[in-house]
Amino acid sequence: MALSLMLRNCPKLKGLSALSRGTFPVSRHQNFTQLVCKNRTALPLAVKCHNQFVKAIEPTRKMSADHSKLWSIEKLFSLILLGVVPATFICPNKILDNLFAVAVVMHFHWGLEACVVDYVRPIIVGPVLPKLALGLLYVVSATTLAALIYYNQHQIGIGQTFRKFWCISGTPADNEAKNQ
């Protein structure tokens, strides 16, 4: 990782060679703090060196928008899920089932989108693969949401399905004996 950081920032570090060398005299008995305090020409050089290193080390991120609002919406959906999940299983109906489907799919989509953006970076895999991965994620999320809403509208719904799973117990022979 350190090697990749050095190779990536090599052109930025080459700019340090443009700094003038030996701009102030140094005696054997002076330390750097004395140089900065006594010799005023050393201060701009120290600031220039510091600025060069800070610019070379700290990565600048180019963001397209302010993501603080999206972060707040994600946290709001997480809070909504805390109420919707139990409500969907306690009293299943189409409204709660659809609300559950939308909230869960959006929650998973945002989590997986963060993984894709963090781990499928253009600097590592090239410019095409991140776009394909993000596009595939949108297709999978849209298909999942459409399938869940279809299931809620044309079948028994998510809440009722989980209630039926909850009632399953014993072996198939035990269940047949109960039904007879």
From TrEMBL:
Protein's name in the database: Succinate dehydrogenase [ubiquinone] cytochrome b small subunit
Annotated binding of heme b, by residue: 107
Function: Membrane-anchoring subunit of succinate dehydrogenase (SDH) that is involved in complex II of the mitochondrial electron transport chain and is responsible for transferring electrons from succinate to ubiquinone (coenzyme Q).
One GO cellular component term noted in the UniProt record for this chain: mitochondrial inner membrane
Bilayer disposition of the protein: Multi-pass membrane protein
Residues spanning the membrane: 76-95, 132-151
Species this protein is from: Hypothenemus hampei
Domain of life, source organism: Eukaryota
GO MF annotation, one: metal ion binding
Electron transport among keywords: yes
Biological process per Gene Ontology, one example term: tricarboxylic acid cycle
Entry's family note: Belongs to the CybS family.
Subcellular location(s) per record: Mitochondrion inner membrane
Keyword set includes Transmembrane: yes
One Pfam family matching this protein: CybS
Keywords linked to the UniProt accession: Electron transport, Heme, Iron, Membrane, Metal-binding, Mitochondrion, Mitochondrion inner membrane, Transit peptide, Transmembrane, Transmembrane helix, Transport, Tricarboxylic acid cycle
InterPro entries, alphabetized: CybS, SQR/QFR_C/D
Binding site for a ubiquinone: 119
